[in-house]
Design brief:
This protein is mainly alpha-helical. The chain folds into 2 domains: about 10-25 and about 150-225, Orthogonal Bundle (Endonuclease Iii, domain 2); about 30-140, Orthogonal Bundle (Endonuclease III, domain 1). The protein contains 13 helices and no strands. The protein has helices spanning about 10-20, 30-40, 45-60, 65-70, 75-80, 85-105, 110, 115-125, 130-140, 150-160, 170-180, 185-200, 220-225. The longest helix has 19 residues, at about 85-105. It is globular, with a radius of gyration of 19 Å. The model has no long low-confidence stretch (mean pLDDT about 95). It binds iron/sulfur cluster (SF4). Iron/sulfur cluster binds near residues 209, 215, 218, 220 and 224.
């Protein structure tokens, strides 16, 4: 992927990360509905907990929307207990699955049809679907170009001095959307690169700045290595 020259900071960052980590295949899911389930279950919890809940759900329902809908609320809560906030998340899962079946005939492309911002507004009307969940569903379940912002994104951009740190979710998302071509493959790769970098290098505590490929353009990292 090439951009115009000279590169704005978010384009330069993409190239630096892409060069360092290469192509990544991200959001671990076998189906679009599994992405939706994962996007709900991962709210306020670590992915390792989500995986345990997902195994339970897959065993019980093969992750078919109809089978999830056929579960009693109690049963669904029990299956997803490892993901935490299980009562709330069971309500959210039944809500979005009912909408998918009743209004979209179970078709996730229909759930996310039309202009991206319109589809996003539609998703945001569903209980339990906030901006990050809506963008994850659009990008990873429906392959629509909607940039996903998460805690890793905010941390990295703040350390790099691109953000001050208090910007709203929508302001950060808009920075990416306004700078990059509307390309779902690019957005997918960019978010995956940020996650990979955050996990392997720009960790919350004790970031590995000395070996970071971004050190030369990172004020926070340069401060860390001179301490
Ligand atoms: S230099 Fe350090 S703080 Fe800066 S991006 Fe790299 S790991 Fe993060």
């Amino acid at each position: 992927m090439t951009f115009s020259s000279p590169e704005p900071p978010l384009q330069r960052l993409f190239h630096q990360l892409d060069q360092a980590f290469g192509d990544l295949d991200w959001w671990p899911a076998d189906s679009a509905y599994e992405v939706i389930v994962g996007a709900i279950l991962t709210q306020n919890t670590a992915w390792t907990n989500v995986q345990m809940a997902m195994v339970n759900l897959k065993t019980a329902t093969k992750l078919s929307p109809q089978a999830v809908m056929a579960l009693s609320r109690d049963k669904l809560e029990t299956l997803i207990t490892p993901a935490g906030f299980f009562r709330q998340k069971a309500r959210y899962l039944h809500g979005i699955t009912a909408y998918l079946l009743d209004h979209c005939d179970g078709d996730i492309a229909r759930l996310c049809h039309g202009p991206v911002e319109d589809a996003r507004k539609r998703l945001l009307t569903l209980t339990g679907v906030g901006p990050e969940t809506a963008d994850s569903i659009l990008l990873y379940a429906a392959n629509r170009p909607s940039f996903v912002v998460d805690a890793y994104t905010r941390r990295l951009l703040t350390r790099l001095g691109i953000l001050q740190g208090r910007e709203s979710y929508d302001t950060i998302r808009q920075s990416f959307m306004a700078t990059l071509p509307a390309d779902a493959t690019l957005f997918n790769q960019y978010h995956a690169l940020i996650v990979e970098h955050a996990k392997t290098c720009c960790r919350k505590l004790a970031p590995l700045c000395e070996t970071c490929p971004l050190l030369s353009s990172c004020p926070h990292g340069q401060q860390e290595v001179t301490l």
